[in-house]
Amino acid sequence: MYKCKHFKIEELVPEKTYKTHGDDSWNLFDERILKVIDKIRDYFGCSMVINNWASEGNMQFRGYRYPGCGVGTPTGAHYKGMAADFNLYKQGKLLDSEFVSKETIKNKAKFPEVKGVEVVNGWSHVDVMLRAGQKPGTICVFGTKGFLYWA
Q: Taking the alpha carbons of 67, 70, 71, 76 in that order, is the dihedral positive or negative?
């Protein structure tokens, strides 16, 4: 079982999940997404925020999502422990999420596990969930209204 070098499990799961499973919550994830978020943090060389409920913040559904939590698509990658939404901060300043998404796509050889990237304003999304018809080495790029293109 892989455990992230940059994240505590509380930063990756909702409060309810942590209270139920504690440290065993690592087992809810596909190891590839855990490795990807560590790689992305290392690549950009800055801090990454996924969930912050444990430090009195209001974000708790940006990593794993439990069935019935009511956030996103119930068959989506978050519910399978295969996705993360995040913000990157360099010297306290938020990096533009569109820049982060485009940089991740441009450097996809460094992140071969990434199968999906969402291009949105306000946060970044990566996942390791293979889509129907997806060719090896490609990334499904999508936005809030769905599929955009294969990269």
A: positive
Residues 47, 25: Cα–Cα separation, whole Å? 22
Token code pair at residue 54: 């444990």
Write out pLDDT tens, residues 96-118: 999 999 999 999 999 999 999 99
Supply the pTM of this predicted model. Answer: 0.95
* C-alpha span between 59 and 52 (Å, rounded): 5
Q: What is the pLDDT of residues 42-61, one digit of tens each?
A: 999 999 999 999 999 999 99
69 part of a folded domain: yes
Q: What is the number of domains present in the chain? A: 1
Spatial distance between the Cα atoms of 104 and 109, rounded to a whole number of angstroms: 9
Distance between CA atoms of residues 143 and 76, nearest Å: 14
In a domain, 2, yes or no: no
The helix/strand/coil state of 109 is helix
Q: Report which residue type is found at 35.
A: K
Is residue 12 within 8 A of residue 53, CB to CB? The reply is no
Q: Give the type of residue at 26.
A: W
Q: Tell whether 3 is covered by a domain.
A: no
